[in-house]
User: Fold these one by one.
Assistant:
Number 1:
Amino acid sequence: MALIPATKPLKQLMPQEIEVWYIIPAIRRELAKSMIKKGLKQKEVAKILGITEAAVSQYIKQKRAKDVVFTPETMSEIEKSAEAIIKNSSQIISEMQKLLESAKKSRTLCQIHYKYGLNIQNCEACMGGKEVKT
């Protein structure tokens, strides 16, 4: 997976900021889309995800959290998580944690980090120096 080059020096962002500002909204976007496909109403999706109906609508219309593109593997995990959350909405936190980990392993977090905050190639800050297979 190629990194997206930064166009100018940017503020140093912590990985957790990237997760909160970019990755979590994008995961919610994909969960919402998946839940709608599975027959839930926007109101139900909003309640399950703890967001507004307007946010669900914006996710569906690609007006919010559109900068993040997940790998097919992560998309598959999101589909599975959507099913688990529909069956038991109390699973949302554990499923979200699994999806955040998947975004790290697939280097989606790295792409966003590089694009919006980190201008260093071959960075392993989020991975603790471990080699991650993509």
Number 2:
Amino acid sequence: MAKLHLANFKEANFQEANLQEANLQEANLQEANLQGADLQGAQHLSVNQLSKVKTLHATKLDEKLLILLKKKSPALFEKP
């Protein structure tokens, strides 16, 4: 498991990245490109963090986060 807590990933490109099981507690994901990334099982990942990213199009998320984010920020799932 990658320990990426408190990391600054502002505007990072994680397109198609495998971040399964990564600890993303308090990581800054503002404007990060997560298109097609796999975040299933990522630990300490919040709706607040993900609502600030550039895109979540085709991103794999745990079901609970997916449902909450599609309600809060549906535009993040549109194709860029």
Number 3:
Amino acid sequence: MKRLDIGSMSGFVSDPGMAVYNASKAFVHGPARSVAVDHGPNVRWNAVSPGWIATGMVDDAFAGQSFVVDGGLTTASPIQPGLFQ
């Protein structure tokens, strides 16, 4: 099975006045991570999470960013550190 969902950075952070939208995007991310951990290579379920568009209005929001690009290695909880070995 292969699946791709569209999430948002709003699923990882809280935007003022957007609680329902933030929660809906967090719900996109959670199942994708859980299915990946539970079913590994048999099921591919990914979520793309676009962020803000770099414009003058959001320049301050982009100072000191940290992006995790690790192919899903840190998707699993450290409770089972050998899960992907």
Number 4:
Amino acid sequence: MGVPRSPIIRDERKMIQTTAPINPGNSGGPAVDSDGQVVGMTTAMISRTQNIEFSVPINRVKEIFEKLRTNGHVSRPWLGVTGNFPTESVIRLFSWPMTAGLLLANVEEGSPAAETDLRAGALRVTVEDLPWILGGDILTSINGKPLRSAREFLEIVKLLSVGKIIDIEYVREDETYRIALPLGQRPVAPMKQPVHPGS
């Protein structure tokens, strides 16, 4: 039975997979094609594999650079929820009101979602050594677009902007509800100050 391993925290938009080795310290360097054209920025490698590396496409790098040049930071919309997308087998397994969508495991304090009635789950269970949190609301759509997978969630969110009012549909105990809320801006983590000897 397939069970998602983690909350939605990664951007699964298209990356460039290469076989060019990325050594420690090389992340952030250019990835070039056979014509010497920069096609991406080296980003990550899969550990314990032979030369499976990933780069951010150059057009995405340009978008981020322009935002940094204009604003000094990248402004990203923030709803403030994390969770998992139950598979059909998981939905059948638990005798708990459940439907397809994002099963909320956490509503972040101070987030736009925290200003609403959205509720995260509280019942912790383990299935095949993987943790689940049950009992939370299930987000089924944003702006009328269904949420059935992490990829769909990311595709919808990347088209949204800070301050935009979105319509959310969610299910709680077999009842469907709708709310509208403005998206916030994802907080920027403060940069760590270097520690100097003797300070």
